[in-house]
Amino acid sequence: MVEALTGVLFWYIVHRYSFTWAALAYTVFTALLIAISFIDLDHMIIPDVLSLPGIALGIAASFVIPRPWYDSLIGLFVGGGMIWIVGSLGELVFKKEAMGGGDVKLMAMIGAFLGWKMVLLTIFFASLIGAIIGIAMKLATGNEYIPFGPFLSVGALCALFFGENFLQWYLTFLIPSG
């Protein structure tokens, strides 16, 4: 399953970005997301050995991805910072860990690769998908502990593949034409 998913996603990246440095950066990013997701599903942990080098790779990739390099730095802090704030507030409210440190580093990595706009969309997509699947799993199994890393990864891939189109579509509702 992992191999098939990886192959399909790599094919889509090359199909979309051709054989460019950006495509190479996004395949590395996708490989990291896949590995992190399946490890988090199996062991409820996001290994620093993947996320921390991923942050550095995301910053390095910002020089070959067609957007300003500082967008990656802002994305790193926005992504990691927002999840840290949500986790801290959740801990205050629920009196238990609401978000692990691995999620913070994963979102910092996602922000480094995608920039601040797409990291905001990542959180939106991940929260929406996570809520739907999380509620269904809670009702089906009664298990309240579901790792959020895979949802962050899926949200990041949605932002990478569909984010710009989604933003353009959404802005048509905010800014009337004519």
TrEMBL record:
<feature type="transmembrane region" description="Helical">
    <location>
        <begin position="20"/>
        <end position="39"/>
    </location>
</feature>
<keyword id="KW-0472">Membrane</keyword>
<dbReference type="Pfam" id="PF01478">
    <property type="entry name" value="Peptidase_A24"/>
</dbReference>
<feature type="transmembrane region" description="Helical">
    <location>
        <begin position="145"/>
        <end position="163"/>
    </location>
</feature>
<keyword id="KW-0812">Transmembrane</keyword>
<feature type="transmembrane region" description="Helical">
    <location>
        <begin position="72"/>
        <end position="94"/>
    </location>
</feature>
<feature type="transmembrane region" description="Helical">
    <location>
        <begin position="106"/>
        <end position="133"/>
    </location>
</feature>
<keyword id="KW-1133">Transmembrane helix</keyword>
<feature type="domain" description="Prepilin type IV endopeptidase peptidase">
    <location>
        <begin position="28"/>
        <end position="135"/>
    </location>
</feature>
<feature type="transmembrane region" description="Helical">
    <location>
        <begin position="46"/>
        <end position="66"/>
    </location>
</feature>
<dbReference type="InterPro" id="IPR050882">
    <property type="entry name" value="Prepilin_peptidase/N-MTase"/>
</dbReference>
<protein>
    <submittedName>
        <fullName>Peptidase A24A domain protein</fullName>
    </submittedName>
</protein>
<dbReference type="GO" id="GO:0004190">
    <property type="term" value="F:aspartic-type endopeptidase activity"/>
</dbReference>
<dbReference type="InterPro" id="IPR000045">
    <property type="entry name" value="Prepilin_IV_endopep_pep"/>
</dbReference>
<comment type="similarity">
    <text>Belongs to the peptidase A24 family.</text>
</comment>
<dbReference type="InterPro" id="IPR014032">
    <property type="entry name" value="Peptidase_A24A_bac"/>
</dbReference>
<dbReference type="GO" id="GO:0006465">
    <property type="term" value="P:signal peptide processing"/>
</dbReference>
<dbReference type="GO" id="GO:0005886">
    <property type="term" value="C:plasma membrane"/>
</dbReference>
